[in-house]
Amino acid sequence: MTVAPEQAAESGTQQPVHTRTLIIGTGFSGLGMAIELQRRGVEFLILEKADEIGGTWRDNTYPGCACDIPSHMYSFSFEPKPDWQHMWSFQPEIFDYLKGVTDKYGLRRYIRFHSHVDRAHWDDDELRWHVFTKDGREFVAQFVVSGVGGLHIPLIPEFDGLDEFRDAGAAAFHSAQWDHSVDLTGKRVAVIGTGASAIQIVPEIVNDVAALQLYQRTPAWVMPRPNNPIPDWMRDMFINVPGTRALMRWGIYWIHEAVGFAMTRQPRLLKIGELMGKWNIRRSVKDRDLRRKLTPNYRAGCKRILNSDTYYQGIANSKTEVVTDGIARFTPRGIVTADGTERDVDVVVFATGFHVTDSYTYVDIKGPGGEDLVDRWTREGVSALRGITIADMPNLFFLLGPNTALGHNSVVFMIESQIRYAAHAIAAVDRAGAQALAPTRAAADTYNDELQSELAGTVWNTGGCRSWYLDEHGVNRTLWSGMTWQYWMATRRFRASEYEFFGLGRDTPTQDVAVPSVVAPQG
After folding, report:
1. Alpha-carbon distance 112 to 482, whole Å?
2. What is the pLDDT of residues 111-133, one digit of tens each?
3. Is the pTM of this model over 0.85?
4. Nearest to residue 488, comparing CAs of 424, 397, 440, 420?
């Protein structure tokens, strides 16, 4: 078998590049899918919009960026790393891990960098997807796997006067697009938002800035979490003593599943976490009025539970002002809040999250008969069978698709389940002698009706908050409704009875762009 010649995608002729499977994205999802297809000997190419792999762990380089799931769990089960430096690893180490996995499996030869997917349509006659990048290149594939996830399109709210603020020479950027050319030393800095990024950024920059304004719409539940380096003796044990690393991963998994049980089945148990969160505030913040501002009035877990031993220390710093009045507008000098107060600002950091429930609107996907998937999901809500396949959309797979994100455990566990399921579906097409498959409407609707029924009693739906898990209609389109082991059970077997197969007995050859004969880890 051969590798696709580079010139096929890069020559001036702009001839379509054919492959059997097209993977979009090179984060955990895209890389894991590529490794699984490589293992099975299935042809593939990978499209990546940037100039390097890594997804969110490439893009997010803000001060203090780290994972909120222990790294012995937030990593591929088939590629363990026994020598993590911290229990909750920082961005550079996770990024290096992904680059190491990429190189070990020789995946770079399949990646087409600077390939930002813009649109795709299904050809009813060819039974193939035609995928186009923003620069006009075309790729033709039997199967398309989206590995872009939901946290890749930064969300910056629309504010009056923001352009004038920037035009006056001030800096303003999203946390996922950190401008490292901006020196914060001695500057008046505004951080807008109090989510997972903000609680890491605030304590990292507060000692350098002249003043820090934290604009808080809703306080978060922040649990104490020391993150000292893992001792050398422990890392040596994980390296040299068989079974210890696996035991650590097993322990981490079940501790987090216990939290998931409370979130999905017994939300009242989360009061224990609320006590810990309130203690975490009291031990660092002495001002009663400030403690009141920082204490949520909703059930812990309704929004994502955050973890930090340093956030409230940054809040208590005399340089920090917590602003709870809404932002009315920007001026060339700074920010005006709803009470009419204007505060001078030199640099604004938007820690305002990402487009999640509407991220699907950023790619134009048309299925059989020209049906517009964006229009369908806008009308009906975002949904998929097991969060992976879409009714009447042949050979299209989403990793970390609708209702497969988590509020309590590692999404890498979910990704691996989805990768296996997608690979089983591709194999099912071959076994059936078909060209394509798609779930039936009945199967997809039944699955999602049951899922939404299960979500109704979870803390995300009943906890008294409005979170990014919910769409504009208040429907949870983001999170899985139960425990992760239940999702593993739901995806470990491919049920052909839920699918319709197309092109039975039809020969529709695809130009070879194949994996090399070496499919084992390299190096």
Report:
1. 37
2. 999 999 999 999 999 999 999 99
3. yes
4. 420
* Residue in 61, 58, 54, 57 with CA at minimum distance from that of residue 25: 54
Helix/strand/coil for 217: coil
Alpha carbon distance 225, 255 (integer Å)? 15
Contact present, 387 and 403 (Cβ < 8 Å): yes
| Confidence label for 523 from pLDDT (cuts 50, 70 and 90) | very low
Instruction: Note whether 141 and 129 are within 8 A (CB).
Output: yes
CB atoms within 10 A of CB 244: 14
Segment (H or E) for 156: none
Please state, in angstroms and rounded to a whole number, the distance separating the CA atoms of residues 316 and 325.
19
DSSP 158-200: --TTHHHHHHTT-EEEEGGG--TTS--TT-EEEEE--STTHHH
467-506: pLDDT as tens digits? 989 988 899 999 999 999 999 999 999 999 999 999 997 6
Tell me if 85 sits within 8 A of 234, measured CB to CB.
Answer: no
Instruction: Supply the pLDDT for residue 511.
Output: 35
Q: What is the DSSP string of 397-455?
A: EETT-TT-B-SSS-HHHHHHHHHHHHHHHHHHHHHTT-SEEEE-HHHHHHHHHHHHHHH
Distance in angstroms (rounded) separating the CA atoms of residues 335 and 329: 6
Could you report the per-residue pLDDT of 510-521, keeping only the tens digit for each?
Answer: 433 333 333 333
Write the pLDDT tens digit of every residue in 322-336: 999 999 999 999 999
Q: HEC string of 384-403?
A: CECCCEECCEEEEEECCCCC
Tokens 């917590």 belong to 322
Closest C-alpha among 284, 283, 285, 258 to residue 272: 258
Residue with tokens 């998994």: 253
User: Taking a C-beta distance cutoff of 8 angstroms, is the pair 415, 400 a contact?
Assistant: yes
357-401 pLDDT tens trace: 777 777 899 999 999 999 999 999 999 999 999 999 999 999 999
Cross-strand bridge partners of residue 211: 188
Across 205-265, the runs of DSSP E, i.e. the strands, are 211-215, 222-223
- Reported in sequence order, the residue ranges of 32-153 that DSSP labels E, i.e. its strands, are 45-47, 111-112, 117-123, 128-133, 138-146
Helices 244-264 and 484-491 pack at an angle, to 10 degrees, of: 100
| Cα atoms in the Cβ-side hemisphere of radius 13 Å centred on 120 | 29
Tokens of 242: 């068989």
Q: Mean of the per-residue pLDDT values for the chain?
A: 92
* Residue partners of 93: CB distance under 8 A and separation at least 6: 71, 84, 85, 86
Encoding tokens for residue 132? Answer: 């186009």
Beta partners for residue 136, in sequence order: none
pLDDT beyond 90 at 310: yes
Q: Please compute the mean of the pLDDT values over residues 408-416 and round it to a whole number.
A: 97
> Regarding beta strands 128-133 and 117-123, do their DSSP bridges make them parallel or antiparallel, or are they unpaired?
antiparallel
Task: Assess whether pLDDT exceeds 70 at residue 355.
Answer: yes
Give residue 520's pLDDT.
37
